[in-house]
Every structure is written in structure tokens, then in C-alpha cells.
Amino acid sequence: MCKTLRIKILCLFLVVSLLSLGAAVALRFMFIADFEQYREGELLDRVQWLTASIEATYEHAGEWHKKAVAHDVIRALMLGLDITVRNSDNRIVMTSTRALEQLSSATREKVRGALASQRLGSPGKTMGFPLFVQGTEIGSVDVTFMQREKDLAFIKRADALLAFSLAFTGVVVILASFGLARGITAPVNRLAEAARSIEKGETGRKVPVSGSDEIAVLSNTFNRMSDALRRQESLRKKLISDVAHELRTPVAAVRAELEAMIDGVMPAEKETLESLLEETGRLTSLIEGIEDMAHAEADALSLKPESLDLRSFLHDVAERFGPLFTKANVRLSVECPPETSITADPEKLNRILDNILGNSLNASEAGGRVILRGSRAPDRGETFLIIEDNGKGIDPAVLPHIFERFYSTRPDGLGLGLSIVRELVEAHGGNLSVDSEQGRGTIFTVSIPDLHTVS
Hints:
The chain is α+β, with helices and mostly antiparallel strands. The protein is 60% helix and 18% strand. The chain has ten helices and eleven strands. The strands form three sheets. A five-stranded mixed sheet has the order 6-8-9-11-10, with helices on one face. It has a four-stranded antiparallel sheet with strand order 2-1-4-3. Strands 5-7 form a two-stranded antiparallel sheet. Helix 1 packs antiparallel against helix 2 (66-78) and helix 5 runs parallel beside helix 6. The two termini are 29 Å apart.
């Protein structure tokens, strides 16, 4: 596909180049035509001056005076006009050759030298012009326009320059077309190769990105997609492993009790059935928790970030949690400077805060306090959410494991809440950290980068 695209781009450049070269050739012909028209107009002006001079000579002499006419013919020759003067009977009165013969040898050599300096070339077209004196036709003059070599040289130089320009431009355009076509299709080719690798199951494959054009945007999008697929595949494998591990114990317990009852080792009494019911209840809770975790992971891959006023957002969260904190006699306060903004998915951000605030409430005793803080670090391009309580704190031995799936210190807990929180924070490109001292309280810190820094 890329080779086809390369050929198409090359053909496009060549077509544009041919059109440009065609325009240059057309411009050449228009330019030369204008030059010829200008030159012809100049020569016609000289003819008008010449005919007026010959008519004045005739009028002054009252007849054709060959010597006087010869001077006009010599002047015409000096102007690049080879003329033949005829009388009213169409007989030749004077020609350029005869006029030169009437000159003295010295003058003739000077005139020929002047003509040689003009480098008059081959004669051009011949035109006839009538001569009149007081309304009466006295004869005519045949004018042959001599071509100056400098005019011809100018046209030749223009043609040579155009030919050189066409050749040079053609070579440059062909080389540039190959280079540009290769430069455009090379990243597309890398994208296609990386896509084929992902198709074969090699998730996480990335392509180099340079510049900021459309292909660079496409490459960045592809890399983010590849990261998402790799992350999703990793989560899927880990989830399957964790689920298998967590389900193994309750299923084994139920199986053992059922086999014992079938073998008659254990009576099918109410207490035994209640034990089985308890295990199935645990299985139900575990399955629901797994389903919740799967939804959270899916949500993490489909963020819908918005620009939010953080102060108002935190006050809304505090208002929603107000009744629960009031009932537990725990004070909840919000500290956030006005006009503080954050770019995040509001639904996911609510879920993050709900989980952490729920843990803080459970860890707080009556009379305790929980502070919900928001702040910005413009120099770092980050927004911080800090949830601080003065509750029981977390055992140092437990602290490193609180974000692990299915890790819980409570018998009835599934250990998924903080794991879900971490997934949602990382989906925003942020970080989640905790600092706790047993007996003094816990501080959760969530950092969310600005939208343009999320990748």
C-alpha cells in the first residue's frame, strides 16, 4: 500500500512540475511575442520618419533628385532598413547598393564600418509604403527590415536560459519528489508494520514520532492506542490470574463439604448448609467485585475529560458525603483556592474521591476530622487532590499492599476499592500515593497532570 502511495505522491509532484514547466514555456512564447511586437513597432516608427524625410526631399527639389534621395537611403540603412525607392511609374530611383556606390571611398568605408558594428543579420520581411506630396502619389518605397544580431542573440539567450531552467528544474523536481515521497511514506510504512505486529499479538509496539504534522499526530494516536492495548492485555492477564486465585479457596471449600456430605462423612444438617450458603455468598460478593473491577478497567480506557472548577467540584462532593460524616460525628472540610481548575473525567474523579473518602470515614473515630484539599502547581502542570484524616492510620506492614487487588485487612472486604482508584488515577496519567502513621492518621495524594501532558 505504501509503495502505491509513494507512486501516487511521485506522480502528483511530476504532474505539478509538468504544469509549472508548461506555464514557463507559455510565458516564454508570450514574452518573445511581446518583444517582437515591440521591435516591429519601433521599426515602423522609423519607416514613418523615413517616408516623411523622402517626401520632404522630393517636395524641396520638385522632382526625384537621386543624390538627395541617396542620403535618405543611407540614413535608412544606418537605421537597419534596406530600402528601394520607386517613382510613380514604378521605376527604381535609388537602392541601398547604388546609394553606397555614390559615396566616396572613405565615407563608404565609414558607413560599412557603422553597419558592421550594428551586426545586421539576414534580411527579414519586406513591406511597401506609398509616398505622397500634397495629396499626389509620387512613388513608393520598398522596405526590407534587417535583423540585428543582438536582437537574435537576446532571443537565443532567453531560449538557452529557459532550456537550462527546464532541465535543472526537472532534475531537482524528480529528486525532490523521490525524497518527499519517501519522507511521507516512511512513517506510514512504519505504522503499517507496527499495526501488523499488533495484529500478531505483539501489543505495546510503538513508532518514532517527529514533527507536529498530521502523520506525527497519527503516530502519537497509534502509540497511545498501542499503550492502551498493552495495558488492557496486561490487566486482562492479571485479572484472570487474580480471579482464579481468589475463587480457588471458596470453590474448594464448597466442593470439600459437598463431597463429605455425599460420602456420609458430614451430615447434611442446617449448620452445614448454612456454611455452604456463607461460602456461596462469599462467591457472589467476589463475582460482583470482579464485575465492578472489570467495569472500572473499561472506564479507565474510555475517559471523557472536561475542564472543571475544582473548588465547586470538591464542595459538591463534600455536600454529598455530609450526612454520612454528620452521622458518624466526623467533621469534613474543604480547602481549595478559588479559580482552581482541573482537567479530568468528572464521573471517574467522583469515583476516586468516593472510595478514598469512604476509607477515611471508616478509619475515623467520633470527633475526628477529614480535610479535602485541592491545589494547583502551574510550573509542574499538575493539580493535586489531598485527603487527610486523623484516624487510626495504616499498619506499616500493610501499607505497601493496600493498592493490590483482593488485598484486604477486613474479613468481609474484597480489597478492590483502592485498586480501582489506582487504575482510574493512572488512566488520567496521574499518580496516587499514601502517607500514614498508625494512630495519627493517613494522607492520600492524587496528582492529575494537565490535559496536554497526558499521553
